[in-house]
Amino acid sequence: MTNTQVTLVQIDNYGPWTVTPEPRREADLQTLQSRLYADISQFVGNRGGYVFFTRFDNMIAVTNGLSMDDHALLQESVGNRYPVTLSLGVATATSPVQALADATEHVQDAGSAQDENRRECLEGRIVDDTSRTTEDIQIAHFDVVNATGNYTDELNAFDTFIEIEQGYAELMRHMRYAHDSLSFFVGGDNVIVVCPDLEKPDYEEAISHVKAAVDVTMQVGVGRGENAHDAGYAAKHALETCRSDGTRVEFEW
Amino acid sequence: MTNTQVTLVQIDNYGPWTVTPEPRREADLQTLQSRLYADISQFVGNRGGYVFFTRFDNMIAVTNGLSMDDHALLQESVGNRYPVTLSLGVATATSPVQALADATEHVQDAGSAQDENRRECLEGRIVDDTSRTTEDIQIAHFDVVNATGNYTDELNAFDTFIEIEQGYAELMRHMRYAHDSLSFFVGGDNVIVVCPDLEKPDYEEAISHVKAAVDVTMQVGVGRGENAHDAGYAAKHALETCRSDGTRVEFEW
Amino acid sequence: MTNTQVTLVQIDNYGPWTVTPEPRREADLQTLQSRLYADISQFVGNRGGYVFFTRFDNMIAVTNGLSMDDHALLQESVGNRYPVTLSLGVATATSPVQALADATEHVQDAGSAQDENRRECLEGRIVDDTSRTTEDIQIAHFDVVNATGNYTDELNAFDTFIEIEQGYAELMRHMRYAHDSLSFFVGGDNVIVVCPDLEKPDYEEAISHVKAAVDVTMQVGVGRGENAHDAGYAAKHALETCRSDGTRVEFEW
Amino acid sequence: MTNTQVTLVQIDNYGPWTVTPEPRREADLQTLQSRLYADISQFVGNRGGYVFFTRFDNMIAVTNGLSMDDHALLQESVGNRYPVTLSLGVATATSPVQALADATEHVQDAGSAQDENRRECLEGRIVDDTSRTTEDIQIAHFDVVNATGNYTDELNAFDTFIEIEQGYAELMRHMRYAHDSLSFFVGGDNVIVVCPDLEKPDYEEAISHVKAAVDVTMQVGVGRGENAHDAGYAAKHALETCRSDGTRVEFEW
After folding, report:
1. Contact (Cβ atoms closer than 8 angstroms) between residue C45 and residue C64
2. Are residues A75 and A160 in the same domain?
3. For A206, A240, B15, D120, which has the most beta carbons within 10 A of its beta carbon?
4. What does the similarity note say (chains A, B, C, D) (predicted)?
């Protein structure tokens, strides 16, 4: 059974900071946001977790394997090197959405995202070390079948983007409402989904749904593991099987 | 009249590179993609342009002010510091979508995104220096009215993300099909749109459309300039007027 | 008694890479070297270690607390994100210089720094986890007394640099030959030294030596710990005592 | 005749910032310093200049080709993305040391490096655009003959470092006092020197001096150009000639 540890990473008072005393150059904000995300990706990723950029001022991470001390260190390091600070909420649940909701509440209880007095909140609970199993995380790695041939090499780059985006949006809503799952676009034509215990029919149905709704054909590799990296890496291998065998849903176990 | 110079930035042979000889750690791919984007944002931004991460392996930039030599230097610098290389297509048109389509064709004509022999293509035309005017670029900076109060401080972080994403998707498709415009989510609840010469009613209609379709309320500041930074910075100021006056559409001229 | 775990980090085949097929832009090499160092600093630092830039193609780290798996992960992550790869040699000894010599030999035995076939060597031994104590590392943090008043605000920036550099060079050679210690300039007027078990008279003598040889007056805070961060942070606090009390040598225990 | 434009880049109030309210993690300071330097290297380098890390809180750049507006943009961009700010002094002279001295005075006149009220000073004069020639900059790129064979593959990494460092220190002092030149270690076994109009005998003498003083054998390639990149790139090519022909001093013109 899955036991997903989710961390909500929220930049403190970011909206006001971006326009005080004057609006800041957009290119600089993009650079700051991207490099902050990249740093968090290294920190979390080097401990077996995954973090997704989401809205950049709010980022969602799967952090099985990270302790509260690890979270505190991340906060301290960012506070030493950036002109902004982070608040972190941590929670665990069988359902990824439930874990994320609890993590969000920890941060919301500490104060508004635009409360200038709320700084570096750190609240929540991690998965107990002795309870961890290799079934804690289920990750599904979707991509669009032959995106390069069907879109990238054929349409203009924005219309290709619209197609990919529609596929992502449809999948994201379906997986959240039907399966309590969290889906994230990770570049190219790839979507990584953090799931509870789902079965092959669930994935086949998701793919059919997206095909029917927006005419985008997807395939998926699914993996399990003790942490996001283990599960996600297994999912990547399963996806390679889809590519080589021409199948649509592959499990790595 | 607008005269938008658009550059398509495409990483050469990226899909195959990410899985050769084996799939690479996802956290490392995210770090690489984000830092590459951040570097391009600094290079383009320091010359008055804007670049949007789009799909990360394909990025769209508004590059009025950058010469072909500037583009070549960007390619060279990235080639010296990353394990991947970039192909660039450049084009100009009154219509942003048309410019982007022509830029895309330059890259497609050089070879497939997954053609391992196509490396560092650089093709296209820039806006003639003597033809540049302060009306070349029109940028609209949208955001969601009181996103923090309505969503961020109230819903779980993924459901907030779904709301923002739906608003973006609706706006993006409307602006592309009705107005040949290119819309990009830039973090938080912000969307920056690269437009041709649009009028107040066009923006009021776009906002109504989004409200009616997905029940997300947006506001917009619009600016013009000789380059993306000038237009975008003016748009940010206009958006501040929306925030302080409670209006929905403000032009900075 | 100290038990220093030292890692030599050497970029594979770097010299040839910088000039093949043609010399690369110097500014890009500087950017690459600095960002690679910064990444290693985060990776090692987040695990309680310290890494010093040294010559940038060869970097020396104090890695008590990092396992061989950690070293392998660092190699993998760098290999995924940079156009170069790293070889790592790891060794432990009471004497920092001895540990560094053994670590160097591991890399040299694998092949020349400019052997294009030697890639990602990983050899050596870490401190046994059960043997670790809070006296394993002794770190001394030196700085120049009132550098700002005596030099930075008075001389031109290069002559100030010459003064600081002379102080560093004299201290570095003295500490290496008299005390088997490894000294590293870390910016400003600061030098961090990795020592075996030294006593107050040893530090007083080092300071006198530097004063007599090049007329640069230094002070030092000394700390001990299970890893470089613990020892180094204690040393920083001791140095603050020097600053506030006007003393020259302070121990944090 | 040379006409060197030098910029002193000084972080405002850095010393106090590093220990307020408490000392900061050393690994984070190293990361911050290195990434800030890397960013400045890209900004300056992309405009044909060179910047050297020097002491990290004080960096020296050769900025022929950068206007005062460029300097202001660099300041603004850093201020938007880092927790520190920069003060910049700019000056030009036939003598590199004189230009650096004048640049330093501009910053010193604005206030102490540790004056918390001195922020983002920008003072000085650039080379007049109409006066620029391809002889404005002379750059000499030295390296140690067969450093890999003589040191890197033979000695422990710190003893190799000591040898390289001694060669650098001797060269640096000689070039400054005998020739008003500014010398910078740039990694590996490389030293880049910013010179006035020097002749072959001057370089032969410098090399003899270093050999006699510390028994380190160096070679040098010299180039000239309108900016640091042009001169430096020519110097790199000349150095390749030394390597292939076994000579000690080569001019690229």
Report:
1. no
2. no
3. A206
4. Belongs to the archaeal-type GTP cyclohydrolase family.
Give the pLDDT confidence score for residue C89 in this predicted structure. Answer: 98
- D185 three-class SS: strand
Which residues sit opposite D58 in a β-bridge? Answer: D10
Q: Which of D24, D29, D77 has its CB closest to that of A28? A: D77
Pairing outcome for strands D182-185 and D190-195: antiparallel
- H or E element, residue B5: strand B4-11
Same domain, D63 and D112: yes
**To which H or E segment does residue D143 belong?**
strand D137-144
Closest-CA residue of A relative to C38 is: A39
In whole angstroms, give the CA distance from residue B143 to residue A19: 14
Query: Which burial class, exposed, middle or buried, applies to A186 when counting CB atoms under 10 A from its CB (0-12, 13-18, 19+)?
Result: buried
- Is B4:B91 a contact under the CB 8 Å cutoff? no
How far, in Å, CA of C243 to CA of A65, rounded? Answer: 41
User: What pLDDT, in 10s, does the model give residues B92-104?
Assistant: 999 999 999 999 9
Helix (H, G, I), strand (E, B) or coil at D115: coil
Looking at residue A51, its pLDDT comes to 98
- The residue ranges of chain C whose pLDDT is under 50 are none
pLDDT at D125: 96
Do A226 and A154 lie in one domain? The reply is yes
CB-nearest to C162 from D30, D114, D172 is D172
Among B82, B101, B131, where does a domain finish? B131
Please give the distance of CA B186 from its chain centroid, rounded to a whole number: 8
Phi-psi map region of B200: left, alpha, beta (phi>0 left; psi -120 to 50 alpha): alpha
Distance (Å) from the C-alpha of residue C16 to the closest C-alpha of chain B? 13
Residue C143 maps to which CATH number? Answer: 3.30.70.270
Contact C107, C60 (CB under 8 A): no
List chain B residues with CB under 8 Å of D45: 77
Mean pLDDT along residues D197-219? 98
CA quadruple D245, D246, D247, D250: dihedral, nearest 10: 50
Q: Reading across the β-sheet that carries A4-11, which strands appear in turn? A: A50-52, A58-62, A4-11, A86-93, A122-124
What pLDDT, on the 0 to 100 scale, is given for residue C91?
Answer: 98
Q: Which of A164, A218, A170, A172 is nearest to A195 (CA)?
A: A172
Give C129→chain D minimum CA distance, Å: 23
Q: Which of A50, A158, A241 to mutate to test the interface with B (most CBs of B within 10 A)?
A: A158
CA nearest D169: which of C78, B147, C161? Answer: C161
Q: Which residues constitute the domain of residue B203?
A: 137-252
Closest CA of chain A from C230, distance in Å = 14
Q: Dump the DSSP string for C81-99.
A: HSSS-EEEEEEEESSHHHH
Instruction: Give per-residue burial for B207-242: e unless 16+ CB within 10 Å, then b.
Output: bebbbeebebebbbbbbbbbbbbbbbbbbbbbbbeb
Residues of B in contact with A164 (CB under 8 A): 55
Positive/negative CA dihedral, B193, B198, B204, B206:
negative
Alpha-carbon gap: D49 to the closest alpha carbon of chain C (Å): 8
CA distance D235 to B115: 37
pLDDT of residue A157: 95
pLDDT tens digits, one per residue of A134-176: 999 999 999 999 999 999 999 999 999 999 999 999 999 999 9
Contact A57 B23 (CB under 8 A): no
Q: How many distinct structural domains can be found in chain D?
A: 2
Same domain, C17 and C77: yes
Per this entry, what is the length of chain D? 253
Of C103, C131, C159, the last residue of a domain is C131
pLDDT tens, position by position, B102-134: 999 999 999 999 999 999 999 999 999 999 999
Tens of pLDDT, residue by residue over D23-54, are 999 999 999 999 999 999 999 999 999 999 99
Q: Cβ separation of D77 and B46 shorter than 8 Å? A: yes
